[in-house]
Amino acid sequence: MNYRISTRAAALAPSLTLAIDSKAKAMKADGIDVVGFGAGEPDFDTPQHIKDACAQALAAGFTKYTPAAGIPELRQAIADKHKRENGLNYKPSQIIASCGGKHACYNVILATCQEGDEVIIPAPYWLSYPEMVKLAAATPVILQTTDQTEFKVTPAQLRAAFTPKSRLFILNTPSNPTGSVYTPAEIKALTDLCIERGVLIMSDEIYEHLLYDGAVHQSAASFSPAHYEHTIIVHGFAKAWSMTGWRLGWCAAPEPIAKAIDAIQGHSTSNPTSFAQKGGVAALNGPQDHLRGWLGEFARRRSYAHQKLNAMPGITCLNAKGAFYLFPNISGTGLKSSEFCAKLLEQEKVAAVPGIAFGADDYVRLSYATGMANIEKGLERMERFVKGLKK
Ligand SMILES: *Cc1c(COP(=O)(O)O)cnc(C)c1O
Fold it and tell me: Is 1 part of a structural domain of the chain?
């Protein structure tokens, strides 16, 4: 049987982060003592009151279809969040709840991009963006950055990338994989240029709450009415509420775009899981004090890892100001990222994600969303590994 795979599907690169994570988990299941730095999810449990709200909804029989874009209560809670925290006025009809932030990104790209459109993506990028753009038959245009600019694109770089085909600019701050955080002034400078050129902005703000060293986040939609009109915010519950497995996220968009996404979702996934949505309402409307403890713990791990990494021969590492990743430069080891990670896993049983997955082959991504004891053990092994390379 010749199972012809569609051109679009065949062109996709499999998700390397998910692949590394499952390889590390399989090695662990085989009894191998693997230290995993691959995880793209917090190691903390979902706060109890959120789980309770979901369990109550399930027990009460809240198990049927909901409107495709989510229950009114959740869309209102999301609108309230944007009002309260970002000073943004969205009607619930402008909010679409989706099956995760990733799904929200895909919906936005499908609703706004088509063949012939170019989508500008700064690298290192979240690895799914270019693949989603390809699925929409549009063309990713990658803007390379390095640690020299804290992995941030400059206005000059963005200006030079615009063509008449430019349709969408994808901004992700705080960033996965680098942990970089654009300042409000930097966000404004870049998005001003997009507005001037009539280019839409997809602003992935899912790490909004995970900031260190006094860094601040300002939503790209919040600088002016024109910014609001040009921006689609993507967000979700996975990171700040540790709800990765719940598959719940959202976008906040100008009305016509929200309408289009509602239709796409209505014919593809329909609603995100009914009882998960009740958990989402509790997450947004309930207490947020879990975050303080998490941020303290993340900051402690980050400082330790940052210092350890910079003490390793051939490795330099910026101290990230957001998310829960460090993105060390490994070019001094003489290895490219895939070989580095393959050997590290093979020789020392440490899982890290090669930067090439994010469009940056001189770097690797280490997630510190794992216990301190693991971090100490893993970095000790990594140090032994790079010292072995130097001989
Ligand atoms: C984790 C993540 C998301 C969304 O993840 P979901 O689990 O689908 O909610 C979106 N963007 C970035 C950059 C992420 O790291």
Answer: no
Distance CA 249, CA 240 (A): 12
Determine the structural domain holding residue 332 and report its residue range: 7-46+290-389
**Which atom of ligand 1 lies nearest, measured to the CA of 204?**
11
Ligand 1 closest atom vs CA 237 = 9
pTM (predicted TM-score): 0.96
Q: How many residues does the chain have?
A: 391
In a domain, 119, yes or no: yes
Check pLDDT > 90 for residue 19: no
Give the number of other CB atoms < 10 A from CB of residue 175: 27
Q: How far is CA 17 from CA 115, 129, 215, 317, 329, in A?
A: 28, 13, 27, 20, 18
- Closest-CA residue to 181 (of 317, 321, 298, 295): 321
Nearest in space to 383 (alpha carbons), one of 366, 362, 360:
366
Closest ligand 1 atom to Cα of 236? 9
Tally of domains in the chain? 2
pLDDT tens, position by position, 63-85: 999 999 999 999 999 999 999 99
Question: Is the Cβ–Cβ distance between 77 and 284 less than 8 Å?
Answer: yes
- CB count within 10 Å of CB 75 equals 25
Helix or strand (DSSP H, E) at 38: none
Mutate to test the pocket of ligand 1, among 176, 232, 273 (most ligand atoms within 8 A of CB): 176
Tell me what pLDDT residue 151 has.
Answer: 98
Specify the residue with its C-alpha closest to ligand 1, atom 4: 101
238 CA from centroid of ligand 1 (Å): 7
Taking CB atoms and a 6 Å cutoff, what residues make up the pocket around ligand 1?
40, 100-102, 126, 172, 176, 204, 206, 236, 238-239, 244, 249
User: In ligand 1, which atom is closest to the CA atom of 104?
Assistant: 8
